[in-house]
Design brief:
The protein has about 350 residues and is of the alpha/beta class. The chain is built from 13 helices and ten strands. The protein has a single domain (about 5-225, about 285-325), classed as Luciferase-like domain (TIM Barrel, Alpha-Beta Barrel), CATH 3.20.20. Strand 6, helix 6 and strand 7 form a beta-alpha-beta unit. Helix 1 runs parallel beside helix 13, helix 9 crosses helix 11 (about 270-280) and helix 12 (about 285-300) packs across helix 13.
């Protein structure tokens, strides 16, 4: 069986583009990915970000699933500290009822934003720690609470619909430990921690205890850009390199065209930051990218690879995923997806 390849969409905002077009781009990407034979399409959660238009993953999941027919659709992920566990269980049970067998619930423990915005989301309410929130979510979505628990009378409706498969997202040992202890799938963000991928994913497998899954299943998240030539891929990467640099400097913004980003005058510190960021990426022509993805999957014992492509031009993003699909031997869907609504 060939290695499953999936898509992580952070909904990049190109300079000069309006948010409605960016959101529509995500739907087009999901339909494109389904036609190419990708296994999943996940959308992230970020708030107060001019670089990424993805503040409401459950809304995008509903729309994308309605405009595709086979590809699995999910969150990569829902940032649990921003939400009531009951509300998450309800929303994803409704999604599962609408699209049975196609929804994934990926969970993260970061807020996906800055401190002030996180405060605005929560309105200053005290948030339980992540293990408590996760235990509550799983109880609402599973067999319920003990009879003496305050939430025992509360049901996450529709209660006769199962909670979709749960995945823990992470870039550190903590996420791997939680996923292993709970017996869930684990998705590792290599673009955030390229050096730790192998050891942390091994930890997840070594410590896994059957729970929601009988066997461990690990997804490796990779930032990748594929173009006709390695030089073109390197050039396209300038847009997000500048975007990451500006984010770290506290002045995030939409992605600039690569020509403009490459032409800026960077100081030594900025050049070093860009170099280190690019070290976490997979860049190249189809053969080069396929070789790197395959090697990373073998090195980390990944069951699946999830590709995130952040470039300025939407057509270039579609082409990158198309080239990767061809190079990795994905099979196109046998029938067209449903018409856009």
């Amino acid at each position: 069986m060939s290695l499953p390849i999936s898509v992580l969409d952070l909904a990049p905002v190109p300079a000069g583009a309006g948010s409605p077009a960016v959101v529509r781009n995500s739907t087009e990407l999901a339909r494109h990915a389904e036609a190419l034979g990708y296994h999943r399409y996940w959308v992230a959660e970020h708030h107060n970000s001019p670089t990424m238009a993805c503040p409401a993953p459950e809304v995008m999941i509903a729309h994308v699933a309605a405009n595709t027919s086979r590809i699995r659709v999910g969150s990569g992920g829902v940032m649990l500290p921003n939400h009531s566990p009951l509300r998450v269980a309800e929303a994803f049970r409704v999604l599962e009822a609408l699209h049975p067998g196609r929804i994934d619930l990926g969970l993260g423990r970061a807020p996906g934003t800055d401190g002030l915005t996180a405060y605005a989301i929560r309105r200053g309410a005290e948030t339980p720690d992540f293990p408590t929130q996760l235990a509550e979510l799983l109880a609402f979505g599973g067999e319920g609470f003990p009879s003496d628990h305050p939430f025992a009378p509360v049901a996450a409706e529709p209660s006769d619909v199962p909670l979709p498969p749960v995945w823990i997202l992470g870039s550190s040992e903590y996420g791997a430990q939680v996923a292993a202890a709970m017996g869930t799938g684990f998705a590792f963000a290599r673009h955030l921690n390229p050096r730790g991928a192998t050891d942390i994913m091994r930890m997840y497998r070594d410590r896994f205890r059957p729970g929601f899954l009988d066997e461990p299943y690990a997804i490796l998240g990779v930032s990748a850009i594929c173009a006709d030539t390695a030089e073109r891929a390197e050039h396209l990467a300038w847009s997000m390199a500048l975007g990451v640099l500006r984010l770290r400097q506290g002045r995030p913004g939409p992605l600039e065209p690569p020509d403009e980003a490459a032409a800026l005058d960077y100081n030594a510190s900025e050049h070093d930051q860009i170099r280190r960021y690019r070290r976490a990426q997979v860049l190249g022509d189809p053969a080069g990218v396929a070789g790197q993805l395959t090697a990373l999957a073998e090195e980390t014992a990944a069951d699946e690879v999830m590709v995130m492509t952040m470039v300025h031009d939407h057509a270039e993003r579609l082409r990158s995923y198309g080239l990767i699909a061809g190079a990795m031997g994905l099979r196109p869907a046998a029938a067209p997806a449903v018409a856009a609504r």
